[in-house]
Structures are given as C-alpha cells and as structure tokens.
Amino acid sequence: MRPLNPYLDLLKSALQGHYGTVGLYSALQRLLLSFTLLAAPICCIIDAPFGRFGTPNWCSVSGTWGWLVMEIVAPIAFLVGLSAPLTTSPLSSSTITLAASWQHAGLLLEPFHHLPRARLILAVAFLIHYANRSLVSTWRNPSRAKMHLAVPLSAILFNGANGFTLGMFIGGGFVAVTESERRDFDDDGLAREPWARALFWTGMTIWALGLASNIYHDEVLYSLKRQSQPRESRRGSKPTSPSPSGAATTSKGRSQRYSIPPRSKGLYRFVSHPSYLSEWLEWLGYHLASLSLGPAPFPSFAATLLLRAGGGKRPVPLPQALQPWRDWYLQPTALFVLMEVAIMWPRATSGHRWYERTFGRKEWQAHGQRWVVIPGVW
C-alpha cells in the first residue's frame, strides 16, 4: 500500500479543493471509474437492499423519501458543475459555502444564457431525465418498499459526483472560449466535421426514444402496483403477512406489491427489465451526442490554455496524475453508461430469478419473459 499513498494523498487534496475545480473534476473522474470496477463484482454477490430486495429493519428508511432525496442530488450537482469556472486556484471553504448559498442560486442558471444550442440541449436533457426520475416517479409510484439507509447515502455520493462531472463536461469552460477558437465549431456548438451534426441528432433521437420507453415501462409497473394493492393497504392498514422483500403476501406467498408484467405491454413481450434496457439506450445516445461537440467537450481549448498558464488568481500547477482524462471512453458520459450497465446488469439478473422464485416456475414460464434485458441475447 505504501506506493499508493502519494497518489491517494493527491486525490484527497484535489477533493478538498486544493487544485481548484479542474483538480476536483479530475479526482472525481478517477473515483467514478474505481467505483464502477469495485461495485460491479459486489453487485453480483449482494443485491442492493431496496425495492423487491429491501428487508425492513432498524436501519430502514422510507422508500419514497429516500428515493426522492438521493435522486434530486444529481440535477443540483449538475447545475453546480455546469456553472463552475475552470480554475486550478484553491477553493476556500468560504467560496464553497458562498456558492452553495441560496443568495447565489441564480448563478446556477447563468450558463443557460451563453451555452450554444447543442450544449444547451444536452443540459436540458439531463435535467428532464432527473426531473422524471426524482419528482415525477415519486408522484406516480403508488408505493415503494423501505430501503436500507446505506442505499440513499451511497446514492447521494454517487449522484453528487456523477452530476458534477457531467455538468463540468457539458459546460467545459465554454465561457472562456476565445473568438479565434470559435472557428473550430459552428453556431450550434458542434464540431466543423461532416459527421458531427448527424451524430448529434442521432444520439439525441436515441436518448429521446430511451426516455420515452423508460417512462412507459415504469408506468406499466406503477399501474400493476395500483391494481394489486389491497384495499386495506390503501386505507392505511398494515398488510398481514410480510414477505422477505417487505411486501405483503397472500397465503400462496405471492407478493401483493409486485405482479408479473403482462407480455402485451411494450418490451415486456421480450424482457423482464425493459426499463433497464431503455435507460442504457438513453445514456448511450446522450454519450454519442456529446462526442459531436466542439471544442472537444472537456478540456476545451480554453481549458487547455488555462491549465498551461496555471489557471485562476492564485494558480497551482496541476500534477500530471491529476490531468483530466482526454480519451473519449473515459469521459463522464462514457463512464456513466459503463456504471449503469455494471451495476444494473447483476440486479436485473437477480430480479429475473426473483420473479420465478416468487410466483413459481410454472406460472413464470407461462406468463413471464424469456430474456432479462436484451432480447435474444440475455
């Protein structure tokens, strides 16, 4: 462990703001990749204790409020990252406190006045997704099983880091771009390449279709919950026989909170977790669209010049180990897709088995779905 200490100390300093917003971005970029590599095998062994895998105990919190709080963090962090200036000057605690105060909340909307259309569309798309995920889904979902306290706490950390890096990635210090650099992209903020515009709109089309599919299939599950909720539960009385998932069960052991989604509803004809597939496609399209931006999403040309000069009023040279990754497959949009697949893949597999175990093999084979997420593959 001794050789790692200097690097870990460097990451700690960056997270504390000693290397400005650029150093913070770089440190979070590395931590998100590390989180993905660690979380994937853990999720193959342990099912995150929420939803159908939630087990009520003294560490449990409301599923509804826990979900709302942990998901609303992402758009807030995104707006902070979007409006963050590119600097390597140390961030003082007073600066961080001031930026987080309600008196300066209007600064979070400042980027929307100067971002070119392509970046603005990507910013709005991110906010639309999380408005649905945090607010709309909380309102539409009739009930959520209690979740372990560790779930919202870990999700808050992840959504904060992911939202901030994505915000900085889309913003990319665009306000600092000089007139000479503007020749490298068109009025919409796209690279002056023959493929850029087609790639952007192809990506955004995939994103929109993924979002619509995600909303539709979530609504199918919400409708099933409303239909299967016992009248006693609707009046506020407690269900009689709790199952291991925390839902009420009948004498046959079938969950009253969940039902087998009918094959007549959209992609449920093929897979048991179409919302997962829809979300993967959504963020894959988002990533493809981001690759068409000009200047390069992050660091932009302005950011590169800033880093060479030190950046900020009291510039601090950025160590080589903290230079932002430039490879397209290590950018926040790509890492987000990787994280989604790595974490949701094992959960979908467990969920598929849960359906068969809960409702019985015979009924599952008669009414359930053959595939887990990808038709004809898995």
Q: Give the biggest sheet.
A: 2 strands, antiparallel
Mean pLDDT across residues: 82
Work out the count of structural domains: 1
Q: Share of helix among residues?
A: 55-70%
What distance separates the N and C termini? 39 Å
- Proportion of β residues? under 5%
Order of helices and strands: HHEHHHEHHHHHHH
Query: Which segments are poorly predicted (pLDDT under 50) over 5 or more consecutive residues?
Result: 231-254, 300-312
Q: Radius of gyration over alpha carbons? A: 23 Å
Overall structural class, as computed from helix and strand content, comes to mainly alpha
What shape does the CA trace take? Answer: globular
How many strands appear in the DSSP assignment?
2
Strand order of the largest sheet: 1-2
Total helical segments:
12
GO cellular component, one term: membrane
Protein name: 3-oxo-5-alpha-steroid 4-dehydrogenase C-terminal domain-containing protein
Membrane topology: Multi-pass membrane protein
Subcellular location: Membrane
The gist of it:
The chain is mainly α.
How would you describe the overall organization of this protein?
The protein has one domain (about 5-225, about 255-305, about 320-370). The protein has helices at about 5-15, 20-45, 65-85, 95-100, 115-140, 150-170, 195-230, 230-235, 275-290, 300-310, 330-360, 360-365, and strands at about 60, 145-150. It is globular, with a radius of gyration of 23 Å. With about 375 residues, it is mostly helical. Helix 5 (about 115-140) runs parallel beside helix 7 (about 195-230). Belongs to the steroid 5-alpha reductase family. This is 3-oxo-5-alpha-steroid 4-dehydrogenase C-terminal domain-containing protein. It comes from Rhodotorula mucilaginosa.
